[in-house]
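pls read this protein:
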Amino acid sequence: MIRAVRWCGYAWLASVVVLGSALLFIEWLSGGTAQLRQWLNIEFFAIFCASLIPGVAMILLEVLFERRHGIDEDR
């Protein structure tokens, strides 16, 4: 059960990276580099980084829980 939390975190991070990359690729295809420069601003990076937080939190919570309770499900 605890291991599932870590894998949910990995899945969250992967989906954010894939969707963010796909969004940038689609914008680049539709408008070239001029359109892409509009998207690559501080707000985009802030939203992208904020969307990574839940995935990182899931992984850290699972690791801290394992260390605190002495559980290692990987073995």
Q: What stands out?
A: The first helix runs from residue 2 to 39. The chain has a mean pLDDT of 82. DSSP finds two helices and no strands in the chain.
